[in-house]
Design brief:
GO terms for molecular function: metal ion binding; phosphatase activity. By secondary structure, this protein is an alpha/beta fold. The chain is 49% helix and 12% strand. The protein has two domains: 160 residues, 3-Layer(aba) Sandwich (Rossmann fold); 77 residues. The chain is globular and about 55 Å long.
Amino acid sequence: MAKITEIFFDCDNTLVLSEELAFEACADMANEILEEYNIPDRYTGDMLIKDFVGQNFRGMMGSLQTKYGFQIEPTELERYVKKEEDMVIAKLEAKAKPCIGATEELEKLFASKKYGFAVVSSSALRRVRASLKKVNQDKFFDHDKVFSAASSLEKPTSKPDPAIYLHALEKVGKKAAETVAIEDSKSGALSAIRANIPVIAYVGSYNGEEIQKEMAERLTALGAKAVMYHWSEFEDRLKEVETGSVEVHSTL
């Protein structure tokens, strides 16, 4: 395959430990909506993570509407999206921390000058930038190379839709085979794979060896080319991707 010259980083729970904080705020917002529509079920952050990890709030609301058979008017949905975004950003600015070893690996890769960097996320652009700034990782990414499925596209979407990765490829001027994506979730991995981008699955942010092993197996089954348990393994996993044969799972 072609030599990799561009690295696409997911943000949430790949670079920044943000998912738990974000889903706390998201659960509050989701429960408010369910109450307004007279739906008795309620969610905790952990329940939302289990059902919707890797999706943005807009994607989750689509899934909830399908599950419970109700419909939110577009203008009302935009109000909810903005309110949830503000709630999440407040939590991130107060408490977000980097994934273990992520900043150190970014420092090494950045100093090597071998690769271009971009962030490719489902989350809103304001949220992604707030996360990166809080953990002092924003210095590694050019302002115009942070991409959001919720904010950067003409029509907002969410992973596993490949649109945001296709958009990122176009903007950085790379072919899929020249890039690699680091993803921690099923929806994120599928998004990159559907754009023909090889994926390194990062499972280090999951709590406990058992769930890490389970996620490694799931993401490998989807088509991830390598699995990384700690950021210190990145260069070895990248070599595996560069020297291996990449097969596109077109049936996904």
